[in-house]
Design goal:
- The complex is a heterodimer of chains A (161) and B (266).
- Chain A has helices at residues 6-14, 70-77, 81-87, and strands at residues 22-28, 40-47, 52-59, 88-89, 95-101, 114-123, 129-138, 143-147, 156-160.
- Chain A is mainly beta.
- Chain A has a single domain, classed as Immunoglobulin-like (Sandwich).
- In chain A, the strands form two sheets. Chain A has a five-stranded mixed β-sheet with strand order 4-3-2-6-7, sandwiched between helices. In chain A, strands 5-1-9-8 form a four-stranded antiparallel β-sheet.
- In chain A, strand 6 (114-123) and strand 7 (129-138) form a beta hairpin.
- Chain A is globular and about 45 Å long.
- Chain A starts with 5 loop residues before the first helix and ends with a strand.
- With 266 residues, chain B is mainly beta.
- Helices cover 5% and strands 48% of the residues of chain B.
- Chain B is built from two helices and 18 strands.
- In chain B, strand 6 and strand 7 (83-89) form a beta hairpin.
- Chain B is globular.
- The chains are: A mainly beta (161), B mainly beta (266).
- Chains A and B meet through helix 2 of A and strand 2 of B.
Chain lengths: 161, 266
């Protein structure tokens, strides 16, 4: 599986910056442990039927462990290798990150009006697994989503535009 | 709860020492995200779910490939408490691990007040029954023990009904069973939903719970059993169906299955 660096994705998204993209701020917390491995992280959107519509970010290394992002694996990873290859980037060290989303789905089409759910999942080798989610409506007009820190994930704040 | 299960599983014909034991196959992994991954499989005949008791022969253990081809599993070891197999899964798709007994015929009878049996069908039995045998009854038996393992994208070839004997079908693929989501299983005999299939659902960890939490069920006309697993983990279903038969070879049929599966985290 070919993995591209995150920078490529960030660059690719930057051209829509003028269209006021949604922003998702997340934190990979510092975890004090003797055997620390960077977590695998997936950020994506599902529609009201729990079908994935947009993979926003995927930070992973080896295919062996992709399955440990359980929900991501079931919903996207196991069946859409093209999308995984296109979106995936390297794992990240603890810190704060901001992702941008242009509001379009995986095929580049604008998402229709309706209810969606933002998912953030993280799994760390020799560590735990965390999944947080929050519903939002489109058009969102700047609605702010806040998800409390949990295990492998620090607080997530998203502004959906 | 255990007592009831034992009653369910022990019939006149299953009078050997393993009768009250359930034979299960327990793969080390049910879901894999890399081709050519190895899995190991534990197999045992035991009373407690996934607590090994007696190692069993794995001579009839087969691996069904996603395209339907069948391979004999040859890297096996039979231990005292459990047996083990090593299996490498080359390509993507859903595999089926199966240990099945082909159709067998038992004839039971009574002689001088003692219950006995021999391996013969209805046509063969006359030549083998001793003089004075009474209460003669021949049963056709078949058992299947199986589990599904999925590498990357799930496939449906092996989860489709074959239309022979007792089989389980579901709209939920084995790789999609998730805690807190309802699971609807249909028990089919010769390809059609079957009433009167009796079963027991159990899950790992019984050794560390006062109440094993088993669920007993019997199917109605729709052949269905539905439940919502509360927790992720490895589950076991054992089910059987017995009925009178008008076949030329047997007076009764008995079909049984054990099925192990994984319930994933939501």
């Amino acid at each position: 599986m070919k993995l591209r660096h995150l920078a490529c994705c960030m660059f690719a998204l930057s051209w829509v910056a003028s269209a006021q993209p949604s922003e998702i701020a997340l934190e990979i917390p510092v975890i004090e442990t003797s055997q620390y491995h960077r977590p695998y992280v997936a950020v994506w959107v599902e529609d009201a039927q729990q079908q994935p519509v947009k993979l926003i970010a995927l930070w992973v290394e080896k295919p062996d462990w992709l399955k440990d992002l359980r929900r991501f694996w079931r919903k996207i990873g196991r069946s859409n290798t093209t999308l995984v290859d296109a979106v995936s980037g390297a794992t990240q060290k603890p810190g704060n990150y901001t992702l941008q989303w242009d509001g379009k789905d995986d095929t580049g089409a604008t998402l229709s009006t309706g209810r969606y759910t933002l998912f953030v999942e993280a799994a760390r080798e020799q560590g735990g697994r965390s999944l947080v989610k929050h519903e939002f409506d489109l058009p969102a007009q700047g609605a702010v989503i806040e998800m409390a820190a949990e295990g492998e994930l620090g607080a997530v704040t998203a502004t959906i535009r | 709860m255990l007592k009831k299960t034992a009653v369910l599983l022990s019939t006149l014909l299953l009078s050997n020492s393993l009768s009250a034991h359930t034979l299960w196959l327990l793969p080390s992994h049910y879901v894999l995200s890399k081709q050519d991954s190895w899995i190991s499989v534990d197999a045992s005949a035991a009373n407690m779910t996934f607590v090994p008791d007696k190692g069993i022969s794995l001579a009839s253990l087969t691996l069904h490939l996603p395209d339907g081809k069948v391979q004999q599993v040859t890297s096996v070891h039979q231990g005292k408490r459990k047996s083990m197999a090593d299996i490498q899964l080359a390509g993507d798709g859903t595999y089926k691990l199966e240990m099945a007994n082909p159709l067998r015929f038992f004839t039971s009878y009574e002689l001088n007040g003692e219950r006995k049996r021999l391996m013969a069908n209805k046509q063969e039995r006359a030549a083998q029954l001793p003089a004075g045998a009474s209460k003669v009854e021949t049963t056709q038996m078949r058992s299947r023990n199986f589990a599904y393992i999925t590498v990357n994208s799930p496939t449906n070839t092996l989860v489709k009904l074959q239309g022979e004997g007792l089989e389980i079908s579901s709209k939920v693929h084995p790789a999609d069973v998730v805690a807190e989501e309802p699971l609807h299983l249909v028990f089919n005999l010769d390809g059609k939903p079957q009433a009167g299939v009796k079963g027991v659902l159990s899950y790992e960890g019984e050794l560390y719970r006062n109440d094993a939490g088993r669920i007993e069920f019997e199917t109605g006309a729709d052949g269905a059993f539905s439940f919502t697993p509360a927790t992720a983990g490895r589950y076991l279903i054992e089910a059987s169906y017995s009925a009178d038969s008008d076949s030329a070879l047997a007076d009764k049929v008995r079909e049984s299955v054990t099925y192990t599966f994984e319930v994933a985290l939501p």
